[in-house]
Structure of Ankyrin repeat-containing protein At5g02620-like isoform X1:
Amino acid sequence: MDPVLFKAAEAGNIGPFENYQTCSLNQLLTPDENTILHVYLKNQSSEPEFTDFVDIILERCPPLLFQANKRGETPLHLAARYGHSNVVKVLIDRAKALPADPESGVTKAKMMLRMTNGERDTALHEAARNSRSHVVEILTKEDPEFSYPANVHGETPLYIAAYIDDYSWGQEREKVIDEILTNCISVDYGGPNGRTALHAAIEVGDHVSETARKLLEKEKKLTQTTDDNGWSPLHHAACYDWSPRIVQVLLEYDASAAYIAETEKKRTALHIAAIQGHVNAMKEIVSRCPACCELVDNRGWNALHYAVASKRTEVFKECLRIPLLDRLKTKKDNKGNTPFHLIAALALKLDNWLLVFRFTEEGIYGLNKQKLSIKDIYNGRLAEIQEILESLEDVGSGPFGCRRRIVLEETNEKNKKEKDASNKA
């Protein structure tokens, strides 16, 4: 593309193109095969007030309407990405004026709306990703029957909208979700790795609990949909610091979600909340589904075992103040260890757990399968202690970036002692 024509296209200046051969306008290309319409749409910092340039160019060269660049992007993809809703209307109107496909009967407008780029994104994917609610409204109302499928990354438009975590786009984001849920007859909720839009909304933060409500009002089964690791939305909610409000919303719609165990370790959401130290989330789960306290993982660990594994004494003590969890303190795992058997091992290494151990009534916890009491463990059966300590580290934290926000008290205590020794020296 000649530099003069490129600059004219950037500015939306029709003059240099008036004397250009109409049949050759679609041959004016950049190295990325962007046409003059691509160049124009990419370089508008705000929505164009007038659509004259687009109208005239398409009047002179209709094939530009569907012509894609190297990335497979049509003018509609770009207009949707940048939020040029008036241009989107022009493009759709132009396509409507063309005859429908004789074989399928699908109109040219719907064919354009359903066209995908190199990553299988439609214009709706682009509009959702950039929170262009006005464009989303236009696109979904034009083709409400179409269930927009996932792109190459497994993302549907609804998943993309739900996963946006830019708080400054909060209202636009909510409008995008509303338009998709309201206008689309058949909604695809899917996302990558088996997740859904509900999983995505939960990962964004507590301020999207209303988004979770909207999704569940439309499709209640989302509470039971697990990702590739067997994690339900409730597992993900239990994993984050902001979880109590979202946990409450999920359990309001489906308390039975508390019984869902993950694929590998068989942990429930209550186990996850315990290892994360999220006592408020634990209280929500226990109050709405008390029987789930009986569930154990593949090692026979209950939620109180996991509270010990969090290595936070304050978390463990808070759990003991919850009657249903306090009853778990004498329950044994597959090796016969109660939560206090684990504490006995920790007490040898961490001073703060020693205080918990010293005020423990020994007799009620019995012997494990090695015929060891909690006092026996504390008094030095090193092989058993090492095995327990290793088991406390092998609890995992969850897939897809769910982080264990656990204070490594042993390391901190060691560093403190080293620092004190250094200061004394």
DSSP finds 25 helices and no strands in the chain. Residues 399-419 have pLDDT under 50 and may be disordered. The longest helix spans residues 409-424.
